[in-house]
């Protein structure tokens, strides 16, 4: 059934009402207007391809159980306020002043607003409209940029894997090609520029023109924070390859440790264009220790030897991305049920505990990593 708006006679085009339409086409006996209907088979294929696993089978099943009275803990959607995080005061104060700039002229404005919020609001209000592009949410901004960049199937977008599924869905919707570059779980979801080069070379060998690169910092769903050195490598790489760099920094305020603080790619870029001269006077001791641990990991029998459940430290964003190695028998049962193993595990976890998660396969994780 298609619900269509059809002008009623004698009222003009200013008024309309919805009329259910069945079949391929139908003429409304009142308005005498032809309305075309569509079904699933005739829809644009690019509209049917995208999948959003964050609100997929697990989420739908969780919603059903919630309606049945089961208490559900939804961990699938990255909404910090829904999980009890207090709204950020500073951004709200700045936005309030920008929306009501006359408050800045009030002599008592400092009693209600923080001084740095007032200064930031004045800065934003001094900018011209040519420097600002507003969208109704980050996702719409991402989709508009991708829609501008992608011309057809031969245009590729570099996307980190595991990835926030908005990108694969939008790229598919606009008829482009997703070019994956894999983050290394064993290196705390680190990014290796050599992997980027290989991904671009592989794409070009298939006739794909790579036009843009996506980075998510802090990682979603992997939670890592990119280092300054990593960001510099990425910026240089995009400059050499003439790529548009799309930077997702939505969760920059959700940082849970001090060892690896959040750094904005824009700030790193601005710092790079200035003349810099420095000499390293001391070795990177922590880096040397980490490298030593990587080449000489724990041995069987050691307390830190590989377990069935491991997880890199959650540095930021809204997700932890653990790796759960399922036993062969569980994988066999999942296949008999016609389910991907990690989806089967997450469904069983949901029904047993009421915890709604997202299977790692939905984020494009490498096969064999049941995260």
TrEMBL record:
The keyword Transferase applies. GO terms for biological process: L-alanine catabolic process; photorespiration. The keyword Transferase applies. GO terms for molecular function: alanine-glyoxylate transaminase activity; glycine:2-oxoglutarate aminotransferase activity; L-alanine:2-oxoglutarate aminotransferase activity; pyridoxal phosphate binding. Its cofactor is pyridoxal 5'-phosphate. It comes from the Eukaryota. Residues 108-261 form the Aminotransferase class I/classII large domain. Signal peptide: none annotated. Pathway: Photosynthesis; C4 acid pathway. Keywords: Aminotransferase, Pyridoxal phosphate, Transferase. It holds the Pfam family Aminotran_1_2. InterPro entries: ALAT1/2-like, Aminotransferase_I/II_large, PyrdxlP-dep_Trfase, PyrdxlP-dep_Trfase_major, PyrdxlP-dep_Trfase_small. Belongs to the class-I pyridoxal-phosphate-dependent aminotransferase family. Alanine aminotransferase subfamily. Homodimer. PANTHER family: ALANINE AMINOTRANSFERASE (PTHR11751), GLUTAMATE--GLYOXYLATE AMINOTRANSFERASE 2 (PTHR11751:SF373). This is Aminotransferase class I/classII large domain-containing protein. It comes from Coptis chinensis.
């Amino acid at each position: 059934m298609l619900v269509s708006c059809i002008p009623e006679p004698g009222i003009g085009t200013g008024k309309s009402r919805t009329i259910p339409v069945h079949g391929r086409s139908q003429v409304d006996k009142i308005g005498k207007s032809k309305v075309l209907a569509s079904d699933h088979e005739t829809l644009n294929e690019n509209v049917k391809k995208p999948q959003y696993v964050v609100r997929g089978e697990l989420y739908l099943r969780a919603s059903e159980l919630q309606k049945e009275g089961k208490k559900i803990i939804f961990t699938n959607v990255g909404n910090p306020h829904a999980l009890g995080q207090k709204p950020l005061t500073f951004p709200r104060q700045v936005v309030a002043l920008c929306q009501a700039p006359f408050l800045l002229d009030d002599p008592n404005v400092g009693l209600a607003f923080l001084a740095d919020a007032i200064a930031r609001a004045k800065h934003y209000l001094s900018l011209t409209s040519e420097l600002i592009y507003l969208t109704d949410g980050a996702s719409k901004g991402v989709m508009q940029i991708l829609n501008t960049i992608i011309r057809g199937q031969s245009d590729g977008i570099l996307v980190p894997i595991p990835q926030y599924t908005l990108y694969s869905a939008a790229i598919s919707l606009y008829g482009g090609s997703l070019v994956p570059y894999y983050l290394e779980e064993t290196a705390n979801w680190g990014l290796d520029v050599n992997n980027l080069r290989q991904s671009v070379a592989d794409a070009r060998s298939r006739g794909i023109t790579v036009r843009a690169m996506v980075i998510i910092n802090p990682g979603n769903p992997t939670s890592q924070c990119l280092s300054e050195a990593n960001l510099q490598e990425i910026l240089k790489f995009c400059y050499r390859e003439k790529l548009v760099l799309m930077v997702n920094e939505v969760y920059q305020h959700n940082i849970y440790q001090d060892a690896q603080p959040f750094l904005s790619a824009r700030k790193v870029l601005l710092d790079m264009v200035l003349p810099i001269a420095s000499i390293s006077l001391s070795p990177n001791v922590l880096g040397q220790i980490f490298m030593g641990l990587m080449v000489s990991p724990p041995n069987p029998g050691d307390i830190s030897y590989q377990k069935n459940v491991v997880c890199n430290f959650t540095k930021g964003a809204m997700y932890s991305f653990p790796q759960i190695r399922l036993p062969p028998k569980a994988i066999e049962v999942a296949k008999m049920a016609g389910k991907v193993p990690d989806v089967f595990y997450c469904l069983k976890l949901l029904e047993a505990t009421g915890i709604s998660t997202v299977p790692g396969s939905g984020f494009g994780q490498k096969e064999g990593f049941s995260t």
